[in-house]
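User
Please review the sequence:
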Amino acid sequence: MNLNQLFKLVRDLQDMKQTDLARELGLTSSAISKFEKSRTTLSEDTLKELARRLNLNPEYITGSSSNPFLSEKLIKMYLPEEEFGIKVVFTPILLIAEASQRMEFVTLLPARKFKFMEEIEEGTLLEPNLYAIAVRDQDNNVFLFRRRAPKAYIVGEQGLRIQLQEMSDKKDKHIYFHTRRLTKELFERIMDWDIKREDIEPLFSRRPPLGDLTDSEQKLIASLRERKIDPEKILKNLGRLS
């Protein structure tokens, strides 16, 4: 994906208008439109300023960073849709995974409303409805994805998991998967799209990021998880030896 396509995709998924961005930057909406269509170029300074407003990384413009995203705020994006809104496309999530050596992927289930739905889900007769996806990348950017229609659910997430797992295996990435059940309050805030970073961050794991560990420590953690060894038992045994 080239720079023009990236800017257009991210602007659209964040529901930002060309006219609003043009006004903020002192440009014409035509200039932004032509840039997105690869019909004209913008100066490096203008691109960096535009990137900041789109939660993109200005250093990505110059090639100083491989991560296209950078923001201290929650980056909220709608998932692209194809085939008249029936098929959901996970392009932005795959883009984040490609740029990150480690990533947390959290599927968010809606608040429970009906007891019979709980029984169906627990009986595994149906897959639970997925409402949103939260992602945290290696640079601590936090993303939230949902469909444009507030009451629409996400389908096809299992296919995305398979793609991410294959990417993790082939490129030696660390991608961690979690599932969380939203509270009624948080579910409604995501539905209203009135949600902030501090609301989403507690949904991720609290363990230290892998980047703070040595290669040997990372391999040890991976080995423990693969063999399903309880670290607490090892710690107790070490305590007896000391």
